[in-house]
Every structure is written in C-alpha cells, then in structure tokens.
Design goal:
Length: about 280
C-alpha cells in the first residue's frame, strides 16, 4: 500500500513491526530518484493518536521531532528519519573493547538523548524497547521502530533519564571489575532528575577510567622492565655459578686457578726490575 502526503509518496520497502495499535514500515520516497528512506509509523488506534499529538505539543521541539504527520483514510502516519539497523545488542561486544571505549559509548548514548528532538514519551519508548544503534565510530543513534501501545504522554525527563541509567548499567555490567566505577555508580544511584546530572556523572567516572588506563599502562611498562631486569640478573647469576664451578674444577685438577695468573704474574716485574728476586 502506498502512503501519500502533500509532500511525498511513501512506498513501503519492508515491514519491521506489526503491533496492536501501530505498524512500522521502512519506506522510500517514490517521487525521488535518490534512495531516500524513512521510518513510517502507521497508527490505527485513535486514542494513541491523541496521546501522540499531546506529547508532541507539550515538547519543546514540537513537530520538528519528525519529518511529518498526516492522515490517510482512517489511519494517521508519523514519519521519522530512517536509522540504519545496527542494534546495540548485536554490535556491542563489551568483552572485546576496553573499559575506556565502554565509557565513550555510554557518554555518546547520553548525548544522543540530550540532543534528540523526540518528545520524552517517545524517547522513553526508544530507550525501553532498546532502539539504540551503535555506529562504527562508537556514536549512538536512536531509532523510532517502536510499539506505541504503552505510550504515556505524562512521561517526562525524569523517567527518561532513569531509564537511560538502566541501559547504561546493562552496558557496563559485563565490565563490573574494581576499576569500573561507572557500573558501581549507576548500579547504586537511581535518583537522577535530568540528563545534565547523568552526563556530569558519566564524565566524572570517564576521567577515572582514563586514570586507571594510564596506571594500568604504567604497571605494564614497569612489569616488562622488571621482567627484563630479572632475565639479566638470571644470566649474571648463571655466569657467576659457571665461573665458580670452573674455578673449583681448575683448583682440583691443577692446584690453582689458571686465569688468576694474569693478575698475579702481572705484578712480578715492573719494567726491567724483578719484584721476586
């Protein structure tokens, strides 16, 4: 089925969700030669439509949160920018990245939430339904492939920031060693009221992560130097033991230590004068 507004004609390419109150389709603009893709939410439930309009009108960005909203027949269509599928659950491998990289991804997630134009009720659903996409440069994009059945227009920043803290805790959970102060913090604290306070805490623990990284690097350098020195000492000890054994063997066989003659005979004469006669 084609969906047409005053601006564009949306031709579905793929259906990614079919819920009780809405469908989510990936569409392209049939009027453009370029392959421009969009995320199209087709909403059948009029009660959800009212909640959506209420949430958008209460937000500071208003209708700038989406490309457009239009009605076609008995359904309403909300169009959002398309985000290429690169789900955090599939591409985030905490065991294969450094603790510092984990911190960077967490910080980028908070920034994406802070900079998002989505109304808080929609942002909450994005976080709750884990529509988070991890880019190759460790940035995070928020997708709108969401089920609107639990949309609550009363949700504000406080609920969103606490849900974000839950996501951060899960991202850091696999690295909950003694150096992971971020996990310890987000596992303990649940009283965030704003993304600003969450971001400040993340920046603070990220600096701690960097200090731990430098200390770890220094420990590794010291350990490598220590290993080198211990190898040298082992070589010296082996040489001294060999020399001692050679001395004992020489004394047993010849009654003297031959290589000491170099030092003894050297002082028997000075020039043409003999010191022994």
């Amino acid at each position: 089925m084609i969906y047409q507004s005053n601006k564009m004609v949306y031709a579905p390419v793929m259906e990614v969700l079919k819920g009780n109150v809405n469908e989510v389709l990936i569409c392209r603009n049939a009027l453009s030669e370029q392959r421009s893709y969009y995320t199209l939410l087709v909403i059948h439930d009029h009660g959800i439509v009212k909640r959506l309009f209420s949430a958008i009108e209460q937000s500071k960005h208003g209708y700038a949160c989406c490309v457009e909203i239009f009605q076609q027949g008995d359904v309403y269509c909300a169009v959002f920018p398309y985000v290429k599928e690169r789900r955090m659950q599939s591409f985030y491998m905490p065991a294969q990245v450094s603790l510092e990289t984990c911190g960077k991804i967490c910080e980028n997630l908070i920034l994406s939430c802070m900079l998002s134009k989505l109304p808080y009720p929609l942002l909450y659903l994005v976080l709750e339904q884990e529509q988070l996409h991890l880019l190759k440069d460790d940035n995070v994009e928020l997708g709108c492939t969401i089920d609107l059945s639990e949309l609550d227009e009363e949700i504000g920043e406080k609920e969103c920031v606490r849900q974000c803290a839950v996501v951060l805790r899960e991202l850091l959970k696999a690295r909950k060693d003694k150096e992971n102060t971020a996990y310890q913090l987000f596992n303990r604290r649940w009283d965030y009221e704003s993304f600003g306070s969450l971001y400040r805490d993340m920046r603070l623990v990220k600096r701690t992560m960097k200090r731990h990284k430098r200390l770890t690097r220094l420990r590794m350098i010291f350990q490598s130097r220590l290993e080198g020195m211990s190898k040298l000492l082992r070589v010296i000890c082996v040489g001294m033991i060999a020399l001692a054994l050679l001395s004992l063997l020489s004394r047993a066989m010849w009654g003297e230590i031959p290589f000491l003659r170099v030092f003894v005979n050297h002082f028997k004469a000075i020039g043409t004068e003999s010191l022994t006669g």
